[in-house]
Amino acid sequence: LICDATNKAAIQTLRQRKQRPDKPLAILFFNQQQLEHYCQPDPVETDSINSAQRPIVLIKTQQQCLPQAINPGLNEIGAMLAYSPLHYLLLEEFKRPIVATSANISGEPVLTNNQQAQQRLADIADVFLHHNRPILRPADDSVVRVIGHKKRLLRIGRGIAPLEFNLPFTIKEATLAVGGQMKNTIALAWEQRVLISPHIGELDSKRSTEVFAQVINDLCRLYRIKPQHIICDTHPDYYSSRYAQNYAEQYAIPITRIQHHKAHAAILCGEFSHQKKWLVFSWDGTGLGDDQTVWGGEGFYGQAGQWHRVTSIKPFYLQGGDKAARQPWRSACALLWQQGMKHQFSDIDSNSLSLSFQAWQKKINTIQCSSMGRVFDAASALLNLGDSSSFEGQGPMQLEALLDSI
Predict the structure, then answer these.
(1) Residue 153: helix, strand or coil by DSSP?
(2) Bridge partners, residue 168, by sequence
(3) Is residue 139 left, alpha or beta, with left meaning phi > 0 and alpha meaning psi from -120 to 50?
(4) 362 C-beta neighbours (distance < 10 Å), count
(5) Contact of 202 with 181, CB cutoff 8 Å
(6) From CA 294, how far away is CA 367, in angstroms rounded?
(7) For a disulfide at 26, which of 78, 205, 359, 394, Cβ 3.0-4.6 Å?
(8) What is the SS3 assignment for 236?
């Protein structure tokens, strides 16, 4: 889905129709010269954006030449250069950068069928430009961010995935790992190889789960691998965990459940396999802990498969369940109430706050939580960056942008 990236009204129309009020939009530039008119990438960012894979690269905007509607409250844009003949023809004629965001319903994988796209996006797009080459598999753009002067992959997709690594050990049984509920990817490992799938996304819609199953089937067929072992998250209600349970029963293979944050920690062991012992701080939004509470601010000592939880942020009680991830004021209130303090939020009426406080006192729909992500949410709410979020991580991203500007 594209529109003029210099036209605030067009951008707002796209946001309104796609029901995507705040989440940043990627910008497609004709060439390096046009890109540098709007922002100033550093050498590593320049190298990344010009690579053959043509990923989206997060680049800080040095001057606000583009409408703030592209990235409300943030100081980075997701920039990419033209990577197909059609892009070159379009941008050469148009003379300006364009917003280029996935042709999908928000939260679902990109649509690949012309007829389905025209039906499902009829209320979003004014015009459809179809191609006579069928698309067999959906592919999101890869996303790169330069951290510590080093290119880091935030999302692997078009041009990069499937991504293969050599393992420092041998897998005895071909193993399928099915990932978590959000930002899902799957992995397939056998012998000394591990293959990471393209980004699939959130497994909370019918189309997402269909693509999830398609990716598993395609990779197994492509590499002629029949999994003999399956791995999933310990959370029993994740779609991927339920899929793994059914798969294990259907094919009579063993299943292993891995705690969410220990899996995060284990990534470092794969990246730096020469290190034998680690102290890892595994901080994120939420994940089911070994004690059945919500973790997300943990420290582990040991190595992959042998982690010992040695530290955690102080647990607090969070009222509202899953709503808390999209309503940062709930996290702020939880931390304040635990300290015997109260606070008023401009967009939250006093009755809602009062009812939430009473439920918190009585531990109704309340969970014990040690999530650093929720602490960042609380900080953003207390700094009046917003009492609610329209996409995951909005408050902390705006908090990061604010700190960078100081």
Answers:
(1) strand
(2) none
(3) beta
(4) 10
(5) yes
(6) 7
(7) 78
(8) coil
CB atoms within 10 A of CB 53: 18
Task: Give residues with Cβ within 8 angstroms of 262, minimum separation 6.
Answer: 282, 300, 307
DSSP string, 15-72: HHHHT-SSS--EEEESSHHHHHHH----HHHHHHHTSTT--EEEEE-SS--S-GGGST
CA dihedral 63, 67, 70, 76 (to 10 degrees): 10
127-138: burial string, b at 16+ Cβ within 10 Å, e else:
eeeeeeeeeeeb
- CA 75 – CA 392 distance, rounded (Å): 17
DSSP label at residue 362: T
* CB distance 377 to 332 below 8 Å: yes
229 within 8 A of 253, measured Cβ to Cβ = yes
Strand partners, 79: 27, 57
| Residue that the structure tokens 């978590």 belong to | 180
Q: How far is it, in rounded angstroms, from Cα 18 to Cα 369? A: 33
**Tens-digit pLDDT profile for the chain (406 aa)?**
999 999 999 999 999 999 999 999 999 999 999 999 998 899 999 999 999 999 999 998 866 689 999 999 999 999 999 999 999 999 999 999 999 998 988 778 888 999 999 999 999 999 999 988 888 888 899 999 999 999 999 999 999 999 999 988 899 999 999 999 999 999 999 999 999 999 999 999 998 999 999 999 999 999 999 999 999 999 999 999 999 999 999 999 999 999 999 999 998 887 887 788 999 999 998 999 999 999 999 999 999 889 999 999 999 999 998 888 889 999 999 999 999 998 777 778 888 888 999 999 999 999 999 999 999 999 999 999 988 899 989 999 999 999 988 7
Q: Which residues contact 92 (CB under 8 A, 6 or more apart)?
A: 30
Q: What is the model's pTM?
A: 0.91
Amino acid found at 258: I
